[in-house]
Amino acid sequence: MTTEIKRLIRVRVEKGAVFKRDGYGKKRQLSDSWRKPKGQHNKQREQKKAKGAHPKPGYGSPIAVRGMHPSGFFEVLVSSVKELEGLDPKTQAVRISGTVGDRKRVGLQAKAIAAGLKVLNVKTVKSAVKKEAATPAAKGAAAPKKETKKPAKSKATDAPVKKGAKKVADAGAEAKKAPAKETKKAATPKAEKAVKAPESATKKAAKPKAEKTAEPAAKQDAASKPKAKKKTGSEVKKNE
According to a count of CB atoms within 10 Å of the terminal CB, is the N or C end of the chain lower? Predict the structure, then answer.
């Protein structure tokens, strides 16, 4: 980029203006894109100073720099490898389209850089590069065999078992089994006692009822007999 182009770009920045429509900040549905004011009492149409400038001759950028990227190149939108043909790397720069996917972008970006063209929107695609680098290696090289681990033997099985130890173990097992049988035998008498106990209790409960019935009969006999009157002291003297 020459010094003259740099100067013209600087002039374009200083000279440039932003033209916004009237009332864009008052209503949410209005955008800031320029619309000519047509109201009879519109302050922007009357060119009041605080209401913003109108697009007029004198605001345009120099013709040599008009439409140029700040880097000093003219942009060319590219979406395929064929569109790279016939481009001048001295005056033109490449911008890859947003519709291009990551897989296609890697090859397109690499060819543009190889041709000496400047890419304005360079993007590093790490995942795609790793996948492409991994697939050729996987096809060429054989898949490594998986090591199968043998099951570890327990220490108890490794140790040699002596004949005396077997006899002791068998005796211990028999001793454990014997009490179980005894407990079962001992459990049966308890059940029999539990069955016999209610019968004796019913017999004992029956006897008090008979005694109770006999007591009221004795009371009735005593009530039927007349009670003997006690003699007073006067009656005893008379008899004497």
Answer: C
